[in-house]
Write a structure and sequence with these properties.
Strand order of the largest sheet: 1-11-12-8-7-2-3-6
Bound molecules: S-adenosylmethionine
Radius of gyration: 22 Å
Oligomer: single chain
Shape: globular
Number of strands: 12
Strand content: 15-25%
Length: 448
């Protein structure tokens, strides 16, 4: 069985040009994002700020006129920020009259939308944000010190668990979230929300550990107001550096929406993105405490609603389990050639339905994204995505790899894209060895 799946992947792979460049593994990690706006909110799943220039160099992309860039899975906004930098003075894609650049991000998680908005507005309009931020912060602190008029309702089981957050810390975080949420919609408010999101991590005894939040008894925790103020202070410092630096003209639009369905506009020359990998990470779960504290979620029902709007990359979505209204996951005839061998490798048993639903649903969802992206791109436009091939179970003990890089490349080709190449940037060795356990950059082009 396992030979069959490897043969299947090898046969798919043989249609594409494959480059191994594992010396550049840091490009698919958050390691380089440790200063300036890139460091504002620690998003473990982000790729490097330097990936953008690697793509421009590899694809020899050149543009005439302003840059139009889109990221349908914007996450913490790494690619949006890199695109604005590249289009700005001194950047690799800067144009002499570089004012009309347009950068768009879609993101389904409201916490990450706020992170993207804060970063992009500060790159484009640092002085404006600085002008409003001091006063906004002072209003929040004054109102916080005056105390809440009524009792503060703390939402969600996690914030109410005293082992994770003291009752005082949970109340203060939610109160701060409400005060910031009541400010006028602006760049300053986004910045303050991101500072509070970072304070959520610093004030509780939890650690983000891949798929879950783990309790760390020995973790030292900060106090909410001082943690929030210290993150705000350091962000203000970064904004001042931006205000003194080189400029980028243009517009950034970050939409809270679903990459499978939201309005994308068109005419993009470039897209660099990373969809959720088919590896069971449920971002709604991992970033739920921030969402509760910021006032984006008020109860478990809203949490579930947000979860089902995410791509089927984890089995906790009902849609993944039931497969588009059917009780059992069923492959369509058109999907059999690509996915039958993968589905046959899933061990029978308790988790068969969940895993099958997730894997089939994942490729069905991504096909929709490729189709919409193809329509939105300008002729000659380049779209690149980073994806990790996830190992399910342990290799050699019934486990198998979902080679998302070659499987997605094939889906994209069927939606009209030309696959220019697959760059293997990192080997993943945690659950056993396989040449397909890896993280890759897949380069697509819409033929002129
Ligand atoms: C791998 S992360 C992207 C990381 C990003 N490249 C960065 O550097 O920060 C994938 C993102 O896709 C988002 N996502 C999941 N389902 C989505 C959907 N249906 N539409 C848009 N975004 C979605 C997740 O919330 C997550 O932030």
């Amino acid at each position: 069985m396992l030979t069959k799946i490897i043969d299947h992947y090898k046969s798919l792979e043989s249609s594409y040009s494959l480059t191994r460049n594992v010396g550049s593994a840091s490009l698919v990690t958050a390691k380089d994002n440790s200063s300036g706006v890139d460091s504002w909110f620690y998003f473990k799943e982000s790729f490097s700020r330097n990936l953008f220039d690697y793509v421009v160099e590899t694809t020899q992309l050149s543009i005439n006129g302003p840059l139009r860039f889109v990221d349908p899975f914007a996450g913490s906004g790494t690619s949006l920020v890199s695109a604005l930098r590249a289009a700005g003075e001194g950047g690799s894609l800067h144009q002499p009259d570089g004012t009309g650049n347009f950068v768009m991000g879609l993101e389904v998680n409201p916490v990450m939308v706020e992170v993207c908005r804060a970063k992009t507005v500060c790159i484009l309009h640092p002085e404006h944000v600085l002008g409003e931020l001091d006063e906004m912060r002072n209003v929040v602190v004054r109102q916080f010190e005056a105390g809440p008029g009524d009792e503060v309702r703390v939402p969600g089981a996690t914030l109410n668990e005293e082992r994770y957050y003291s009752a005082d810390a949970a109340r203060d975080l939610v109160f701060l979230g409400a005060l910031i949420g009541a400010l006028p919609d602006s760049g300053g408010r986004s910045v303050l929300r991101v500072a509070l999101a970072s304070a959520v991590g610093a004030t509780g005894k939890l650690r983000k550990d891949g798929r879950a939040l783990r309790y760390v008894k020995s973790k030292r925790v900060a106090e909410p107001l001082s943690s929030f103020l210290s993150f705000t202070e350091s962000m203000i410092h970064d904004i001042k550096v931006l205000a003194a630096g080189e400029r980028c003209g243009g517009e950034a639009m970050v939409v809270h929406g679903d990459a499978r369905a939201a309005e994308l506009r068109d005419g993009y020359q470039l897209s660099i993105f990373s969809p959720p990998y088919p590896n069971n990470i449920d971002y709604t779960e991992v970033y739920k405490v921030e969402a509760y504290a910021l006032g984006f979620l008020s109860d478990e029902a809203e949490l579930r609603q947000q979860r089902v709007r995410t791509l089927r990359s984890h089995p906790s979505s009902r849609a993944a389990l039931s497969m588009d209204g059917l009780d059992e996951p069923v492959l369509r005839d058109s999907e059999k050639e690509l996915l039958e061998v993968v589905v046959e490798s899933i061990p029978s048993g308790r988790y068969w339905q969940q895993r099958t639903g997730m894997i089939v649903g994942y490729f069905r969802d991504m096909r929709l994204v490729f189709r919409r992206m193809f329509d939105a791109m300008a002729p000659g436009g380049v779209a690149c995505f980073v994806v990790g091939n996830s190992t399910h179970g342990v290799l050699g003990e019934g486990g198998f790899v979902v080679a998302a890089d070659v499987l997605l490349a094939h889906c994209a080709a069927e939606e009209g894209w030309e696959v220019e190449g697959i760059h293997v940037l990192r080997d993943l060795i945690r659950r056993g060895k396989s040449e397909f356990a890896r993280e890759s950059l897949v380069i697509l082009r819409k033929k002129s």
